[in-house]
Amino acid sequence: MADLLGLGGHTVDEKVKKLVSAIERLLDQLAFPHSIAALGISKEEFERAMPDLVRNAFDDPSGRSNPRMPLISELSELFWSAYHGRGLAKVASASQQQTA
Predict the structure, then answer these.
(1) Quick one: which of 42, 29, 31, 22 has its CA closest to 83?
(2) pLDDT < 50: residue spans in the chain
(3) Is 58 a member of any domain?
(4) Which of 48, 40, 50, 45 lies closest to 81 in space, CA to CA?
(5) Is residue 71 domain-resident?
(6) DSSP state for residue 58 in the 8-state scheme
(7) CA angle, 94 as apex, 92 and 98 as ends, to 5°?
(8) Total number of domains in the chain
(9) 54 and 76 in contact (C-beta within 8 Å)?
(10) Cα separation of 62 and 66, whole Å?
(11) How far apart are CA 68 and CA 58, in angstroms?
């Protein structure tokens, strides 16, 4: 995606960081929140909604076009990442953990 957008970078890691940075700049320009929490939804409210969110995502027929079906635990992790937000700092941290 970074290549298609002409963002540069030589390694996959560099390209991911440039793509995330470009997305963060776009969110800032649009005054769009970077996380679900930033919308003012409490952790407790989100936690109560999680079973329905995960079940609906798992049962969504559009998900059948994915190369593999996600696990319930993976969907839950994805929703929590969206709640907390995944900015450039978190991408860099995750990248460093994978190489360690």
Answers:
(1) 42
(2) 99-100
(3) yes
(4) 50
(5) yes
(6) H
(7) 115
(8) 1
(9) yes
(10) 8
(11) 12
Q: Which SS3 state, helix, strand or coil, does residue 34 take?
A: coil
Q: How many CB atoms lie within 10 A of CB 71?
A: 10
**CA 58 – CA 79 distance, rounded (Å):** 12
Torsion of CA 46, 34, 75, 88, to 10 degrees: -140
Any domain includes 3: no
Residues of the domain holding 47: 35-84
Please check whether residue 55 lies inside any domain of the structure: yes
Looking at residue 61, its pLDDT comes to 78
Sign of the CA dihedral with 48 first, then 68, 95, and 3 last: negative
Rounded Cα distance between 16 and 80, Å, is 20
